[in-house]
Amino acid sequence: MTHGLPMLPEMAPVLVETVGESMIGWTQRQHPMPKVVKVNRIFGAVEQMVDPWTGHFEDHLETTKIKLVSTLLVTLREESKCGNYFENFLTKCKNKLALNCLYLYHNIEKFLQIFYTQPINMFRICRYAKFIYSKFIATGSPFSVRAGPKVMLFIWQNLDDPVGDMFDEVVEHILTVLAKFWHRLLLEESWIYRKVCL
């Protein structure tokens, strides 16, 4: 499903500092990201986390969380160029929800590419938005990502007149699901690396 998707232009994450909450913003809108990602929402109220780069428990989580989310975003953007490594890891984990979230992320990426293509083809944009809704978001959809009822209602209300940020909340939900698996993958790789170095 992720194979053969055209790649989006390069973009760099921009760190946005706010009082009490770290966020990551993006310089271009053609990426399936909310304009600002609330890092604390993605990882929840975790008090300690193993830093996959050092292998130590971290009490000051802000930098570790920001690093994890920004590397996850880069991985999602570049995944098809690196042999779908993250997709293969999720397949080995046998977690259908995580795989569905990954596939939805790539479909939203394609939707935004269509949305920002000139000249605008509203029929094609509406059709693709409805395809995403029916495949991944609607109740009983075959590749459900278990988005909440508020998210489903908001997207459903915008299906006939789609906007570029209509999938922002579902992308935040996707990142919440995928961040746990990304952290796990990094921990496993760093453990294997340390084992090899010994």
Automatic annotation (TrEMBL):
InterPro entries: RGS (IPR016137), Rgs22 (IPR042651), RGS_sf (IPR036305), RGS_subdomain_2 (IPR044926). One of its GO terms (cellular component) is nucleus. GO terms for biological process: regulation of signal transduction. Residues 78-180 form the RGS domain. One of its GO terms (molecular function) is G-protein alpha-subunit binding. Signal peptide: none annotated. It comes from the Eukaryota. This is Regulator of G-protein signaling 22-like. It comes from Octopus sinensis (East Asian common octopus). The lineage of its organism: Eukaryota, Metazoa, Spiralia, Lophotrochozoa, Mollusca.
